[in-house]
Amino acid sequence: MRDEGPSGGATVLVVDDNDANRALAQGALEDEGYRVVLAAGGEAGVAAFERERPDCVLLDVRMPEVDGFAACERIRALPGGVETPVIFLTALRDVDTFDCALRAGGDDFLSKPVRPTELLVRVQAALKLRRMSLELREHYALLRRQRDDLLRVQLQKERLMAFVVHDLKNPVNTLDLHAQLLLRNRALPADARDSAEKIRAEARQLNRLILDLLDVSKADEGKLCVRRSEVALGPFVEGILAEFEVAAEARGVHLSSIVAVERTRADEDLLRRVLVNLIENAIRHTPTGGRVAVTVGDTPEGTEFRVADTGAGVPAALHAAIFDPFVQAGSGFELPSSRAGRGLGLAFCKLAAEAHGGRIWLEDGAPGAVFCVRFPRAS
Fold it and tell me: Which domain holds residue 213?
């Protein structure tokens, strides 16, 4: 749209069968720099609109042959006619005429005799509203493009998740299976047996990462579901620690546990993976001769799980951010080299805790770190 300021950029079409009215409107508008196109009747006005594509139309109501209402309806049907403001001019000041003007598609209603100052104000207001409408339409189109781009990215992400789960999980499980077959061979040399054990451990870790990535994606989409059941915590924690005995011994790390709560209601699979992530993380970050302790206690808010290590610890500034996915990359903080982990397992732990209505946080172990997870009591 052309500039509608007093510099004369905007074009106004004046449609009126009265010569004096056309001259009055023309004089007032041209004095303010508008370009004015005149038409002496409804038919001529429609033709002038199609030819000139004005920015605003002043349209008399009572005209022979084609009146203002009919002319407005025809203008609205032309290209550009919907967004062009139409101001009706009429000597009739009654509700029926006003309603007819609105039904015909009028944007404003100006009574005769027209005062030049009021005419200018109404034209300026109509052009300003038109400009705002065009800008809103552009913003809406931009938002639609952005929405479509986001949807496209989301669909690509879902395809990637399907690839990760179906195309990566199977070969990882196959690796673990072949490592188990090797370990069944009693004639296998000690160094080969050790390598097969390490293959199994890494395959299990990779499988956990795949599941964590899938669940982080589900949580982003609001699809991470919690299926609570009764969990006997003593055998539950002992079984998880037994899985890490070999890895802990290989690193010279002592494992211990204190379980002061007999049972809790939680999603057993999610709870297991939370503790597995935290214990594996603690063992990996604990130096030789260190300790990893798991305690389960009862608090007024619910059941609390604490996994403490004697490693390098985590800077206080990262205590909250460390649960964000991949926080180590570009977080603005420097983690100790022993804590420069993958960043996905802790993100999953946070999502699993929140899915239960609980929370996870980090405390200083002096030395080391203590990861605390609290699950509220389920009604």
Answer: 150-220
Alpha-carbon gap, residue 361 to 343, rounded angstroms: 15
What's the residue count for the chain?
379
Is the full-model pTM beyond 0.85? no
Q: What is the mean pLDDT of residues 127-144?
A: 85
- Predicted confidence at residue 340, as pLDDT, reads 41
- The CATH number of whichever domain residue 354 belongs to comes to 3.30.565.10
**Residue 132 banded pLDDT, cuts 50, 70, 90:** confident
- Are 253 and 360 in a shared domain? yes
DSSP per-residue letters across 130-178:
HHHHHHHHHHHHHHHHHHHHHHHHHHHHHHHHHIIIIIIHHHHHHHHHH
**DSSP letters of 46-106?**
HHHHHHH--SEEEEES--SSS-HHHHHHHHHTSTTTTTS-EEEEES--SHHHHHHHHHHT-
H-helix or E-strand spanning residue 110: strand 108-111
